[in-house]
Design brief:
This protein is mainly alpha-helical and 325 residues long. It has helices at 26-48, 54-60, 64-95, 100-115, 118-126, 128-131, 150-153, 156-181, 185-193, 198-228, 241-251, 255-284, 301-312; strands at 134-138, 144-149.
Length: 325
């Protein structure tokens, strides 16, 4: 019997009080111990194995060639995602258009870029100068205003960037379309009834609500894009992180330490992106209960509402206390 429930005379003032006790779960404790032992064994195998050459890892982790590879990888990731997001919004709107040509073109784009491997697409982009040695701008099927050599304009970087962005746009288009369809059509109809144009309805009414659905998978796609940049060697673009560390490892006949260096940098960048995704999800999830778990903000979530009601003094009972009927 708990001392809090016993008066000074040693008698419980509430007769027949039920003293609940937690159900013992020895299996959960055993499972936790087993997992901890396995984790300790894995950490010991990593640290004590001299073949990993942690001294080389620490020496070259901040090498200028490695840092340059990290910067090129970040540039490819964010630039290709920015282009892909702009294309994805246009493709998703076209897919919902009443115009059958727009719907067909959007469907064909998504079908092609999702239906072929990204490595194959990158190889084609790398061979663009072979397929079309000269590109021109002018009237379709008519006179040309000016022309240029493809190899001079579409360099390995631009070929890698376009290849990644166009492939990613097909996947993001379906994510954006799912977000747009999650918004009640009555929202757009009400906005149009107030005199808003279609573009303004999309920017001010539909997209802000759809972002709650769009942001989580887009964050996953960004992290996936970070690692997909290692495939741009197919173009070939040889300045990104994976190729740079592999080349350094092959030159020094130490491939494993440089693979570890690349893995550590990918893990660091991925961790930062996951933190950013968490805050974006919380920002766009306001009003849908996801912000309530943060425990901050006046009036946000059930806890905030209960605290506000209690502070108002309009009820005499303690609404924060759990009651068992």
């Amino acid at each position: 019997m708990s001392s809090n429930n016993v008066s000074a005379s040693g008698v419980d003032p509430v007769p027949n009080r039920i003293h609940a006790r937690g159900v013992p779960r020895p299996g959960r404790l055993v499972a936790a111990v087993v997992v901890l032992v396995l984790a300790a064994m894995a950490a010991n195998a990593l640290i004590t194995n001299d073949n990993f050459r942690w001294d080389v890892v620490w020496l070259y982790l901040r090498d200028v060639l490695v840092i340059r590879g990290v910067l090129w990888t970040l540039l490819l990731t964010f630039a290709s995602m920015a282009i892909a997001i702009a294309l994805a919004i246009a493709l998703a709107v076209m897919r919902q258009s009443d115009n059958p040509v727009m719907r067909w073109v959007s469907w064909a784009w998504i079908w092609f870029f999702r239906g072929t491997p990204v490595y194959t697409q990158l190889v084609f982009w790398g061979l663009l100068a072979v397929l079309y040695p000269r590109l021109s701008v002018g009237v379709p099927f008519g006179p040309e205003f000016f022309s240029f050599t493809t190899a001079d304009v579409v360099t390995a970087f631009w070929a890698a960037l376009l290849g990644l962005a166009l492939n990613e746009s097909a996947y993001l288009a379906e994510i954006v379309r799912a977000g747009l369809t999650s918004v009640d059509p009555g929202q757009a109809e009400a906005a149009k009834a107030l005199g808003m144009k279609d573009g303004k309805v999309l920017r001010r009414v539909v997209l802000p609500q759809a972002m709650r659905v769009i942001v989580p998978p887009t964050g996953n796609e960004t992290i996936s894009m970070l690692k997909t940049t290692s495939l741009v060697v197919a173009v070939p673009f040889t300045l990104e992180l994976q190729f740079a560390t592999s080349a350094m490892g092959n030159r020094q006949f130490l491939p494993i330490p440089f693979l570890v260096i690349a893995a550590l940098w990918y893990l660091l960048i991925t961790s930062i992106l996951m933190v950013g995704q968490h805050y974006l999800e919380r920002y766009y999830g306001r009003g849908f209960g996801t912000a309530a778990r943060s425990g901050r903000g006046r009036g946000k979530g059930p806890g905030g509402r209960q605290a506000a009601i209690a502070a108002a003094g309009t009820v005499k009972v303690d609404i924060t206390k759990e009651v068992t009927p």
